[in-house]
Amino acid sequence: MGPETPPPDLGIPPERMPRHVAIIMDGNGRWARRRGLRRVLGHRTGSRTVRAVTRECARLGIERLTLYAFSSENWKRPKAEIDYLMKLLREYLVKERREIMENNIRFRAIGRLSELPPEVREDLDRTVEMSRDNTGLILTLALAYGGRAEIADAARRVAEKVREGVLLPEDVDEETIREHLYDPEMPDPDLLIRSAGEMRVSNYLLWQIAYSEFWVTEVFWPDFGVEHLHEALRDYARRERRFGGLKEEE
After folding, report:
1. pTM, whole model, 2 decimals?
2. Which domains does the chain have, with CATH numbers?
């Protein structure tokens, strides 16, 4: 089912559906604390939400889903929590392979992936490779990711090409920078969703979200369900995107 013919149950015209949805999955720790549980149990429960949301985006024919899974700032967390998150990530990468293949999902990752533990990187590469020929939803995990780091890394690669004489300084423009981002093929997100009520972008896709529509919910990520995704999509469909321009009547 392609993006041009989404299921009719949402009542959203095809042209009003976002092609690319990005999500900041926030609130796992707070969800656990409010229940007197360890933070890590919030992360485990949140991983189940990932499956449900990914499956629904695939069903709806959304082209891309990009999830903020582990930020570059998350390395500052206690070692025990980081170790658990890496273990959980490995479990996800292995256990979700069947789900990925059955739903025709193409899996990708962006970030400073070389910073991940070797065993995580191995599982990551295998999942990317096995889903390479799938043609449905492109699911991207942002891992060891920071928006400023991505722009800095892109600028460094451009500077190297200028130094080598491959590029002239006067030829460097916005498209040049885009071509050197972690995933040059990634279109800008149409819709950015954030759970747990925080009103900030947290260093996420800083280059790509210049004109993205934001939708924030107070719901913690472990409690975020398909109904909340539908609510976000309906709200997006009612908006008039102008990209800095004006409506004709204005």
Report:
1. 0.93
2. 17-146+188-238 (3.40.1180.10)
